[in-house]
């Protein structure tokens, strides 16, 4: 039974989470009308593959702690900026989520889950280091540019009379 649970956690949990997230996205009426599921799946797969590539840095072995972490975080941050630009540009329009922050968040979260899973698989396969499950959490840096831009856009919606009370 232990082998079955380990197999499920290692290879089946992340795809199952992505399928559930895509089903939720497809069932929401506002997103369902405008979301192009074919393009969304393609975007999630490409972004997931790009997000998984820093897992190859595990070949640095012990040097991963010193240099690999910084390279991974920088890579995820740059990929997050590129994802933000694509969501606001033509790719977001073809996906149908250019003006829907919830749809953008769902697509980026699905990409992050897939990318973290690929990162974990590559990290444990090529490096053999025991902390692959911790290293895959670096993929959360991918979401920082989107969350910053979303927070800033919501901050600008606060009406000025609220500030006059201060």
Please tell me about this protein's structure:
- With 166 residues, the chain is mainly α.
- The protein has one domain (25-152).
- Helices cover 73% and strands 0% of the residues.
- It contains nine helices and no strands.
- The protein has helices at 2-27, 29-34, 37-52, 68-88, 90-95, 101-127, 132-135, 144-155, 161-164.
- Helix 1 packs antiparallel against helix 6 and helix 3 (37-52) packs parallel to helix 6.
- The longest helix is centred in the C-terminal third of the chain and has 27 residues, at 101-127.
- It starts with a helix and ends with a helix.
- The model has no long low-confidence stretch (mean pLDDT 85).
Give the total of beta strands.
Answer: 0
Q: What low-confidence regions span 5 or more consecutive residues with pLDDT below 50?
A: none
- N-to-C series of helices and strands: HHHHHHHHH
User: What's the number of helices?
Assistant: 9
Overall radius of gyration: 18 Å
| Rounded mean pLDDT score | 85
Count of domain modules: 1
Specify the helix fraction band.
over 70%
Let me know the largest β-sheet: none
Shape: globular
Structural class: mainly alpha
Oligomeric status of the shown chains? single chain
Percentage of β-strand residues: under 5%
Give the N-to-C terminal Cα separation: 61 Å
Transmembrane segments: 6-28, 40-58, 64-85, 105-123, 129-147
Keywords: Membrane, Transmembrane, Transmembrane helix
